[in-house]
Design goal:
five-stranded mixed sheet, alpha+beta, rod-shaped, Beta-Lactamase, five-stranded antiparallel sheet, 12 strands, 3 domains, about 15% strand
Length: about 525
């Protein structure tokens, strides 16, 4: 099929060049007759045909048509414009040197014109390659994510070489992590053919170019290039085209240069991902350290109270009044409930801090999350005054509902316990184009201005106001949960008094079972 198309192309090119040659010589002859009738100098006739030869060399391909037109020009001048007219005679005195000079000049001009044209084509191709290489390098340097890098590479390889492209990242037979850009739908079945897959695998295993001209054991239709360095193979690029020039050495060389830019982008992305993992691990270590400090304080106080109250009940049971007895039991119950809440927080933090943690995001209705949170907080603090405000617009947001409810409970409990205010606490939700913004506002004593920037670090500071028992671990967990959801969290004092805690959640993001 490819050979038939190749032959048809050259036949059409031959007839096209032949017609151009005949047409230009015909026009030159008409012009020469016109000059003769105007009694022009005969030397102008030679010049006309020399110009015709130069023009033919420009508009046709190769040397043959320029040389061929040189001979035709000589015969035309001899036949039409030299004595005896309308007959060939190259032997009259003075004619042989003139004709020979014209032939030599025409041939030289033809050869030089073809060379200049070829040089111009080479320079044009190199300029195009340089521009394309500069563009793809610039775009790859700013691309983030392996999928974006692959999509960008697919577009450039396909558009530059006018071919279908497949790019595997990883082992073609194992990872099945690939993308395609196709010129025709039929190329899908070709790329998915087992012969082509075997060729891609051979390219991956040997780190050499595999294709129809390089590996003749089977009928491979594509050309496959390794995406590799001296010690690492990142994947394989496959190209499929009817263009035979795709497999020329100079084309493969430039493909190698473009592939090297792709490798740089892949290595940069891998380095970025490693750095992100290091940052995450550093953050986890910091959180573990802060968690231990916070737990040592937040658990010691209620446990001490429980031990004291229980010891008092046991040792002074008969000496206690009924009211004192009930108060001590209520203290034990409250401290035990506090410990249960702390355990829930610890369980939440293990879900996001474990090395193999899975944040299970699902599309959840914001108003349902707020309503469920209000039910839970009312059970724990039945006398608390809380007003919830949610937009009427029904919005589904990807989130782990249990963890986000834990954040809301922590922030509401912090406002109830530490604000020291009898006024209602406001839980407000607003939507922007990209985010849902949750705010918990109280009218209490506010936060210490010196500690606002570190309030989510999990470091307990024993002062009055909002930084008392439980604020350290609770807010640290809130920060970790929100960051795991790709959101942000902040705290600020209100101008009219009290504090506002605010966090955002993206309205779009990874869907169900992120991280599995």
């Amino acid at each position: 099929m490819k050979k038939n198309n190749f032959n048809q192309f050259h036949i059409l090119l031959f007839f096209s060049d032949f017609l151009k040659t005949i047409l230009i010589l015909f026009i030159a002859t008409i012009l020469a007759f016109t000059l003769v009738r105007l009694s022009a100098i005969a030397d102008n006739i030679f010049s006309i045909y020399i110009l015709a030869v130069a023009l033919i060399s420009v508009v046709t391909s190769g040397y043959i048509w320029g040389i061929f037109s040189s001979f035709l020009g000589i015969f035309s001048v001899n036949y039409f414009f030299t004595f005896p007219y309308n007959a060939f005679n190259f032997l009259l005195a003075g004619y042989p040197p003139a004709f020979f000079s014209m032939l030599v000049i025409s041939t030289i001009i033809s050869t030089l014109t073809v060379k200049i044209k070829k040089q111009a084509l080479i320079f044009s191709e190199r300029e195009k390659q340089a521009e394309s290489l500069h563009d793809i390098t610039k775009r790859l340097l700013t691309a983030t994510g392996m999928d974006n890098i692959r999509t960008l590479a697919l577009d450039y390889f396909s558009n530059f070489y006018h071919c279908s492209v497949i790019i595997y990242f990883g082992n073609p037979s194992i990872d099945q992590n690939y993308g395609m850009k196709l010129l025709t739908a039929q190329h899908t079945s070709i790329f998915e053919n087992q012969t082509e897959k075997n060729a891609a695998q051979l390219c991956y295993d040997t780190s050499v170019v595999v294709g129809a001209d390089t590996f003749s054991q089977t009928n491979i239709k594509g050309t496959y290039l390794p995406i590799s360095t001296d010690d690492t193979v990142f994947g394989v690029i496959g190209l499929l085209s009817e263009n035979e020039g795709l497999k020329q050495p100079k084309t493969l060389d430039f493909l190698g240069i473009m592939t090297s830019q792709l490798i740089l982008a892949i290595e940069r992305q891998n380095l970025f991902e490693k750095q992100q993992k290091i940052l995450v691990e550093t953050e986890k270590e910091k959180m573990r350290s802060n968690l231990l400090r916070a737990v040592s304080h937040d658990l010691r106080t209620p446990l001490t109270c429980i031990v004291f109250s229980a010891t008092t009940v046991l040792e002074q049971n008969t000496a206690l009044s009924k009211q004192q007895f009930q108060k001590l039991l209520n203290d034990i119950i409250q401290d035990a409930q506090w410990l249960i809440h702390m355990v829930e927080n610890l369980l939440a933090v293990t879900r996001i801090n474990n090395e193999h943690a899975v944040i299970k995001k699902q599309q959840e209705a914001v108003e349902e999350i707020v309503a469920a949170t209000m039910v839970k907080i009312k059970k724990r603090f039945p006398d608390a005054q809380i007003k919830a405000s949610v937009p009427q617009e029904f919005i589904m947001i990807p989130m782990d509902a249990t963890l986000i409810m834990q954040v809301l409970i922590n922030l509401l409990e912090n406002a109830i316990v530490h604000s020291h205010s009898t006024e209602a606490i406001l839980l407000d939700v607003v939507y922007t184009e990209q985010y849902a913004i949750f705010s918990i506002k109280d009218n209490g004593v506010g936060l210490d201005e010196n500690e606002i920037n570190h309030i989510f670090d999990g470091v307990f500071i024993e002062k009055t106001g909002d930084s008392t028992r439980g604020i350290g671990i609770g807010l640290s967990i809130c920060k970790s949960i929100i960051f795991a959801h790709k959101g942000s969290i902040s705290a600020e004092n209100n101008k009219e008094g009290g504090a506002t805690f605010r966090f955002t959640l993206p309205k779009k993001g990874e869907d169900i079972n992120h991280g599995e």
